[in-house]
1-deoxy-D-xylulose-5-phosphate synthase
Amino acid sequence: MEPIEQEDLVKLNQAIRRDIVQMIGIAKSGHPGGSLSCVEILSVLYFRIMNIDPKNPKGEARDRFILSKGHAAPALYSVLAHRGFFPMEELLTLRKFGSRLQGHPDMKKTPGIDASTGSLGQGLSISVGLALGSRLSGKGYQVYTLVGDGEIQEGQFWEASMAAAHYKLSKLTLVLDYNGLQIDGKNEEVMSFGNIRNKLESFGFEVFEVDGHSLEQLEAAFKSTVKDRPKCIIAHTHKGQGVSFMKDQVGWHGKAPNDEEVARALSELEGF
């Protein structure tokens, strides 16, 4: 598949946001805030960057993507459906009994999922193993990992960061969805990070900071070449991006919209 034009990607992002709202509204449970914040990150990866084939989702040479912030699964499911991994109508089965689309990604059920995630802080460790596998197998595939800013309070994240730098995993790209909020409130009030860029650089990453809703900045950062060290993209985003009453509101971390709120949100989002 040829990368789609950015104008079309803007329209697609609106469609993905509509999917997220509808899916969670029908399921009556889920995490809209952090799903809406990472839409541009995922769409750029899946439609402009990654080497993947929906017809061969387990191809050994494919690039790998790990959604460490597994509660943002609705965003990933929508992207995978639009990319052709499974039928669009399946999106509305989110969290239903027997559905392939569980509340968190399940690699045994869902085409296009490279790792089952949900326990926060573990995704980067999985990705370090995959990046080592890329080197040892000679396949040379890239590994991309999306983590939430709240989850980097987990100690395992920093252990994995040390390993990524120690083994000079230049095939590994860490993306930090930096929306400033987590389930209990503002990150700085729950557990302050200090200067996160300095921390990541001191742990051995080549760090890029971008507007996480800018397609141009994201693509440029993904395409930047880094040698002998892992890459980190700090993507500054807004929780609930695209829906005015959810934007930057911590209460929408894990609350499903009711029917009236779904209708209001959809009215704010353009069709595709």
Remarks:
- The radius of gyration is 17 Å.
- The longest strand covers residues 172-178.
